[in-house]
Amino acid sequence: MFIKFKKLQSFITISLLISILFFSSCNQTSNTTELNLPDGFISTVFVDSIAETVRHMDVKNNGDLYVKFRRQSNDGVLAAIRDVNSDGKADSIVKFGQYHIPQRGSYSTGSRIHNGYLYYSSQLTVYRIKLDQQKLVPISNPEIIVVDDHEHGSHEHIGKPIAFDDKGHIYVPFGAPNNACQEPKRTPQAPGLDPCPDLKLHAGIWRFKSDELNQTQEDGELFATGLRSIVAMNWNPFDKSLYAVGHGRDDLARLWPNHYSKWESAVLPSEEFIKIEEGDNFGWPYCYYDQMQNKKLLNPEYGGDGKIIGRCDQFKDPIIGFPGHWAPNDLVFYNGDAFPERYKNGAFIAFHGSTNRAPYPQSGYFVGFVPFKNGKLSGDYEIFADGFAQVNPIKNVRDAKYRPMGIAFSKDGSMYIADSRKGKIWRIEFKGERENFGKKQLMKMEERKLLSHFVTPHIDNDIIKMDEKKIEVKKYFNPLLIYLNHFKYFNRIDKQFKNSDDE
User: Fold this and answer.
1) Whether the Cβ atoms of residue 249 and residue 179 lie closer than 8 Å to each other
2) Among residues 336, 312, 347, which one has the least CA distance to residue 413?
3) Structure confidence by residue, pLDDT tens digits, 11-49
């Protein structure tokens, strides 16, 4: 009886603490400057702002940071950044580089350092430029590695992230030029083309030689297909495999209101975390992954209704199905030693945040972590860095002050996170005791999953109206969920530690 009482006492105590956390988070304002991180980690502002804003980035061995601009400017398409006096803040920011063909779009993405070169991409071209180990700004001329020579020009999902394996290859996605292969595209009730002709040259990842110049798509090999939109992609050196987190399709309710509610359209389909092997097919445009049913389902353009599997049992499933519209935009595997041991070889993912979850709260806007052990997934996703939006709930994407976009690690183990709204860059360091990092720190972040930009919204109670009273009602109801779900979250963390080396 005494044991049961102690458990109840502990439950009530922890639940009250969680409630305090929740209410303080709900009242978070744009005046907040510190990111929410696990205990032991600290964040500092490395760069306050870059006007062109930032997509992907990477760090040279000497600590110089190179960032890719979202928008082209007269000053350049990249920035080289150096902390001259070693105080943890940027002292020198130099913009440089141009495209051989100017672009109007805003989804230039790639920036990766490989074999002494900085590789970077516009929407249509992958370049490289030789780095000097002493000089901040490269003085050599850029070279063209891959050109998107299609006649279509710009289209949806045209960003070109890049990744390298250990055998001399570079991987480049060619995204789908539409949402679900409809004709006309994004038209209510319009069926999908079957077979989809876009699969010949789009919706896949092509593999090229990393050191050969002036390649076009036909010079590469189709490595994997059925991938609508890939922005977060990287090579995992531990298991020598390519991974990505894809963007799922949009507009289920708008295009097919007879089959899908606004709630289903807000939370579906999944953003898929996938391991990609040569020859894989992930099912676009015929199928999508439902993370709540844990299976691939037939898209409505091809006769689906949210229940029918049909041909979808022949396509590869993800290793994790994240909730819909979180917008995963960068993926980096951690191989350093500065962070606690549980982060070794795991995956950090920047979730840029949703734009189309109305009338429910927008979601994402954080950097997550997925633990790996011996090259395999070893637990559920964790919240690593949160607080970018600085509002709760997030009614509209315009309300979010920052949106995490790029991730990079320096040789000394520091982590950099870039924002795509103002071009802000944070530096993350671990200052705690590595050997004492464990359940307590993870539980603190796990509790944040009950905030509105993480939790699956209630179909009725979580509808956001431009009426502040509705939001107040939501605030008072959420602590009840906390009480009911406390043990579920605790057990999840407990199981993860039982299967890890750092218990």
Assistant:
1) yes
2) 336
3) 444 444 444 444 444 433 333 357 999 999 999 999 999
Token digits of residue 171:
């991987």
Name residue, tokens 């906390």.
482
pLDDT in tens, 380-393: 999 999 999 999 99
Task: Output 339-342 pairs: Cβ under 8 A, ≥24 positions apart.
Answer: 339/413, 339/415, 339/430, 339/434, 340/40, 340/430, 340/432, 340/434, 340/437, 340/502, 341/434, 341/437, 341/501, 341/502, 342/371, 342/437, 342/500, 342/502
- Helix segments in 72-193, DSSP class H: none
Closest CA to 393 of 422, 365, 417: 365
Q: Which amino acid is at 183?
A: E
Which residue in the block uniquely carries the two structure tokens 């070109």? 160
Q: Are the C-beta atoms of 89 and 83 separated by less than 8 Å?
A: yes
Going by C-alpha positions, the residue among 91, 88, 63, 65 that lies closest to residue 78 is: 65
DSSP bridge pairs for 203: none
Q: What percent of the chain is predicted at pLDDT more than 90?
A: 81
Alpha-carbon distance values, 371 to 119, 346, 381 (Å): 28, 5, 7
Over residues 72-103, the pLDDT tens digits come to: 999 999 999 999 999 999 999 999 999 988 87
Domain boundaries, the chain: 2-498
In 3-state terms, what secondary structure has residue 453?
A: coil
pLDDT for 185 equals 94
- For the stretch 439-479, pLDDT in tens is 999 999 999 999 999 999 999 999 997 544 444 434 434 54
pLDDT reading at 6 higher than 70: no
pTM above 0.85, yes or no: yes
Q: Is 381 in contact with 415 (CB distance < 8 Å)?
A: no
Which numeric CATH code is attached to 2-498? 2.120.10.30
Residue 383 pairs in a beta bridge with: 368
Q: CA nearest 22: which of 479, 496, 485?
A: 479
Q: Which pLDDT does position 17 carry in this prediction?
A: 44
Separation of CA 311 from chain center: 28
For residues 264 and 283, what is the distance between their CA atoms, to the nearest angstrom? 20
**Cβ(426)–Cβ(44) below 8 Å:** yes
